Amino acid sequence: MKALMFGWEFPPHILGGLGTASYGLTKGMEKCGDMDITFVIPKPIGDEEKTFAHIIGATNTPIAYRDVSWDYVQKRQGHVMNPQEYYELRDNIYADFNYLHLNDLGCIEFSGRYPDNLIEEINNYSIVAGVIARKEQFDIIHSHDWLTYPAGIHAKQITGRPLVIHVHATDFDRSRGNVNPTVFAIEKDGMHHADHIITVSNLTRNTVIEKYGIDPAKVTTVHNAVEPMSQEIQNIVMNRGTNDKIITFLGRITMQKGPEYFVEAAAKVLKKAKNARFVMAGSGDMMNDMIRLAARRGIADRFHFTGFLKGKAVYEMLKASDVYVMPSVSEPFGISPLEAMQVGVPTIISKQSGCAEILDNAIKIDYWDIDAMADAMYSIITYPSMYNFLKHEGKSEVDEIKWEYAGQKVIDIYKKCLAY
């Protein structure tokens, strides 16, 4: 079976969990056998792993007259054309392409990130998706998250192939309910054009059904997983140079992730445990606010900000930690707790996270309950038996949460869409 996937990130160049999940799922699907995956991203760097997927860069795909085929123009027009009408329409469409300021190779330039003109890049990406869809051979289309829904819709309209969209998050999660109407419209359009919708948790599935008006029969939950540790990661040995207990927040410092609750809980713990240190690893629009909050609470000397971490640095931070905390206000899934438990770090997660649906050996608290969060932190760093139980049982649990299991569920969804 051949799948054409559209994504926005792909390791090693990632800015969040979307790239990690897309990579893990794609690799897991390949392990299941009988899968040929072409993965499209806006701007590959060249060092992406290609052993389990064919990587195509939208920024490397020329747009030219030959791409505006008779079939494409006729489908776009919606009726049978005569040759003169075709040539006139083709020239109009190509004029639209020229407006995109193509480079000397006839390609649209993409940043490969999340620029200020993100909506423009999403629209341009959907245009290139049409070109790629006409060139590639595939059975089904798979779009990862809202940024690529327009690309998937365009590919479906051109080829008639079924479209599966993968909801890694919604704007209700990112905005705490203060939804951006443009993003919401793109999400809803993708959901209504999709033949099937995959969500990363039941939490997200309920949002899709209730907030976007989608038929429940059209939505299936496939929980995320975690990549097995490489030998390089396993060999990391941290010499912290301190006997203090390190409690870590690792993620984007944005309102979705609840960083202020972590700081408030830290202040409570430090009233009882003078040997605790707190780390906020990440970057985001609330970082300066959190620095000021730590200062106001009088804990700045026990609180550290590392900035954005990725790759090996993430695992170095986790291995140096005694406790990992994810206090997200609304977390569709959350892979980082699995990564923490994988290296034997006792973990605290909010009940408002998708991973709470599948993890039994993590402590679960309401994100707003800073007393419960502080009690859990204090207990783990104070009572060795509790620390050791969560360390060993947590690792055993996540070692059995594998991407190939998620991959097989996605392949089964493909087969239903294709009526195999």
What is the topological layout?
Elements: E1 2-6, H1 17-31, E2 36-41, E3 54-57, H2 70-77, H3 83-98, H4 118-135, E4 140-144, H5 149-159, E5 163-167, H6 171-175, H7 181-193, E6 196-199, H8 202-212, E7 219-221, H9 231-234, E8 245-250, H10 259-269, E9 276-281, H11 287-296, E10 303-307, H12 312-319, E11 323-326, H13 336-342, E12 347-350, E13 363-365, H14 370-382, H15 384-398, H16 403-417
Parallel strand pairs: 1-2, 1-4, 2-3, 4-5, 5-6, 6-7, 8-9, 8-11, 9-10, 11-12, 12-13
Helix pairs in contact: 1-16, 4-5, 5-7, 10-14, 13-15
Structure characterization notes:
By secondary structure, the chain is an alpha/beta fold. The strands form 2 sheets. It has a 7-stranded parallel sheet with strand order 3-2-1-4-5-6-7, with helices on both faces. Strands 10-9-8-11-12-13 form a 6-stranded parallel sheet, with helices on both faces. The chain has helices at 17-31, 70-77, 83-98, 118-135, 149-159, 171-175, 181-193, 202-212, 231-234, 259-269, 287-296, 312-319, 336-342, 370-382, 384-398, 403-417, and strands spanning 2-6, 36-41, 54-57, 140-144, 163-167, 196-199, 219-221, 245-250, 276-281, 303-307, 323-326, 347-350, 363-365. It is elongated and about 80 Å long. It has 2 domains: 2-63 and 100-225 and 403-417, Glycogen Phosphorylase B (Rossmann fold, 3-Layer(aba) Sandwich), CATH 3.40.50.2000; 231-398, Rossmann fold (3-Layer(aba) Sandwich), CATH 3.40.50.2000. Helix 4 runs parallel beside helix 5 (149-159), helix 5 (149-159) runs parallel beside helix 7 (181-193) and helix 10 (259-269) crosses helix 14 (370-382).
